[in-house]
Design brief:
alpha+beta, L-amino peptidase D-ALA esterase/amidase, Ubiquitin-like (UB roll), 2 domains, 7-stranded mixed beta sheet, 10 helices, disordered N terminus, disordered C terminus
């Protein structure tokens, strides 16, 4: 059993994600500089409300067109101190998996703000519905524990709604939701649906830099597609994509109060029924996961204080759950992080961290590779030179593979 692409960030400096790599699946074609508003039917607008200093954009409005609201699904923080917007979105999606508008404010998280915070989140949703139609969802990000300047925010919703939201304003959207980020996070791809004889678009936008750790953290993401989906299918596709992306990244080991990932998809209608099980659904699932993974990697590369990214691939565990525990233990290890920050290929720290994961592990059965170089295999130390390993461990992105050597993988967990 393997769990691949467990990407964790480390310390010191900043480095943006290298772009340009094409997706692995032939039916996907990435859109250069594409984001959420590449999806036909999704538009956006952004304004400055004064919550952030220096007239910076700090409120975004996302609108879904058409005669009916779009299908919506959400995955939220597991932090027990969830913010008011998270509580509101959870409650609304539990009653109806649909959205016409999404309001995102940055600079203030509306978290740990008590009953007043809950009233403010509801007021934001109701104002968006009054201006754009409903239902509406609300996301917030920024400083925790400060009252939301609700009148400024409500005025911002009014101005955004009347400022001609369009597909051309995706860059404003991506800027308006940032907090400690150093650059926007966007991605879009076109997927060919061969059974339906058409193509659809999947696009997304995200923010996140610090307080990043499974399960998610102080990050927000909205992914959209013009593929027609029902509520159950949208929920299943989103959860699968999040498990393979946002749930597999860490920067500092902290989770937050506001992290949210939403999926918007066109609602099925009489002319276009919902996608169901089949090859097209599998292709769409790969496209949504592809966009989610790109956004997640961009968050990791923008991690607060990050200079290098460590990708951990664990194989040979009894279950996927065991593999994730080992990868998580390696990536949370302070000693592994300091070694990576210093470009020091001290692989013994990696094995030690794996052994602390409370997962069955036989030192004489495991194999560890750093950038493909076998440094430890079945009880024997490799012969790779120190210079080669140091060069590999000093790259911006470092991949290690750890095979636990279990003879027969067990069931998924």
């Amino acid at each position: 059993m393997s769990t691949n692409g467990l990407i964790r960030a480390n310390t010191l400096g900043r480095s943006p994600l290298a772009t340009g790599a094409q997706p692995a699946h032939a039916e996907l074609t990435d859109i250069a500089d594409g984001g959420l508003t590449c999806v036909p039917g999704l538009t956006a607008a952004a304004v400055a409300t004064g919550v952030k200093p220096d007239d910076a954009l700090d409120l975004a409005l996302i609108l879904a067109d058409g005669p009916r609201p779009w299908t919506a699904a959400g995955v939220f923080t597991r932090n027990a101190a969830a913010a008011a917007p998270v509580e509101l979105c959870r409650a609304r999606l539990a009653k109806r998996r649909a959205a016409r508008a999404i309001v995102i404010n940055s600079g203030n998280a509306n978290a740990l703000t008590g009953e007043q915070g809950r009233r403010d989140a509801l007021a934001m949703a109701e104002r968006a519905e009054a201006r754009c139609g409903g239902p509406a969802l609300v996301l917030s990000t920024g400083v925790i524990g400060e009252p939301l300047p609700i009148e400024r925010v409500l005025d911002g919703i009014d101005r955004a709604a009347s400022s001609s939201p369009s597909s051309a304003r995706g860059a404003e959207l991506s800027q308006a939701i940032l907090t400690t980020d150093t650059y926007p996070k966007v991605h879009a791809t076109v997927v060919e649906l061969t059974d339906a004889g058409t193509t659809v678009t999947v696009g997304g936008v995200a923010k996140g830099s610090g307080m990043i750790h499974p399960d998610m953290a102080t990050m927000l993401a909205v992914i959209g597609t013009d593929a027609p989906l029902g509520g159950d299918a949208a929920d299943e596709l989103l959860r699968s994509a999040v498990d393979a992306s946002f749930h597999e990244i860490s920067v500092d080991g902290d989770t937050s109060t506001n992290d949210t990932v939403l999926l918007l998809a066109r609602a099925p209608n009489d002319r276009c029924g919902p996608l169901t099980d089949g090859a097209d659904m599998e292709r769409l699932a790969r496209a949504i996961t592809h966009v989610a993974r790109s956004l997640a990697e961009q968050i990791v590369f923008d991690g607060e204080g990050a200079s290098r990214v460590l990708e951990v691939r664990v194989e040979g565990a009894g279950t996927r759950g065991e593999a994730k525990k080992v990868a998580d233990s390696v990536c949370r290890s302070a000693l592994v992080k300091t070694a990576l920050a210093g470009g020091d290929p001290n692989w013994g720290r990696i094995v030690s961290a794996a052994g602390a994961a409370d997962v069955p592990l036989d030192p004489d059965a495991i194999e560890l590779r750093i950038e493909g170089h076998a440094v430890y295999s079945r009880g024997a130390v490799g012969t790779v030179s120190e210079d080669v390993l140091r060069a590999a461990f000093s790259a911006r992105r470092v991949q290690i593979s750890l095979d636990l050597g279990r003879a027969k993988p067990g069931p998924e967990s």
